[in-house]
């Protein structure tokens, strides 16, 4: 946690895990959420309370369930100091 109890933003070193080397797969959204929650020393129930979502939703995200509502995901990621981005795939 950063000053004032707010989550610290990810640094370039933290994000290096998100850029896999050749032959490695990128961590899933659920893996990244769980890893960040544990780094912050928070329980699923605590994150759920801070984000205004259910503990069940946090578990679903961490277990990569297929149907995740983005309107609920945004506050969860915000509490954890994470962001969701989209990019175009390479066409080559």
TrEMBL record:
Keywords: DNA-binding. Residues 33-87 form the HTH cro/C1-type domain. InterPro entries: Cro/C1-type_HTH, Lambda_DNA-bd_dom_sf, Tscrpt_reg_HipB-like. One of its GO terms (molecular function) is DNA binding. It comes from the Bacteria. Residues 1-33 are annotated as: Disordered. PROSITE patterns: HTH_CROC1. This is Putative Xre family DNA-binding protein. It comes from Kineosphaera limosa NBRC 100340. The lineage of its organism: Bacteria, Bacillati, Actinomycetota, Actinomycetes, Micrococcales.
